[in-house]
Sequence to fold (237 residues):
Amino acid sequence: MATAMEMLSALKTCLSGLGSAFTGRDATAIGTDATFPVATLAIQRDDLVGEETEIEASNPYQLWTRHLMLEVVVDDAGDWDAALDAAWIAVRRLLATYPHSLKMGGATFFRAESGSNRSALQVPLSFDYELNLLI
Amino acid sequence: MSSQFDAIMARTGLPALRRAFGEPVAYSGSVDVATWAMFSRNPATVGQFGELIEARITAEIPLADVPDPQPGDTLMRGDVEYRVDQVSGDDGYMVTVVLRAV
Fold:
């Protein structure tokens, strides 16, 4: 099993097929000349794998589930129904090729505001990773 | 019934605004008229987890020329065509519309 950062990096590479994919601070400074759709990955929290809510802190080998949010901004040219549907299909197609185990939830759609051609969708994702304190 | 302020605006205020900030535009839709407008660009954030700052364009148009603007009307500013997405208010002299380039 890979580390969290290895999993995140692979996920970013996988989503770059959509257009541009950003993590970290880069995700907070997307230029208006970016190639849309633009995907951003934001880490949200870690839970223990399985039903456990606590773990002995001295346990040197730990399994965690990292939760993150995928947000995709599209340039909808005034038709966000079609643009968001196409982006959601593309996201699912790309995630199907992700080489590690990945869980995904349903998508939430956000239409463009007045004066804007940019709509968005959000998809919660999670993956398990290992923390080996003996290394 | 018009007030003295209305008279001042018609005689002095609006012509001064037009001279200082006005640009010629062609308005079409609810009314077809060659008039003028004052444009503003305001930053707005798109996205909750990613963040993109984009400029939203609004225009103030003389209410006397465009008394009842409607979403879907169009406005030509030079070679650029805008669609009226929303009417966001008026002050009795100028009406403000939210524009989207098409």
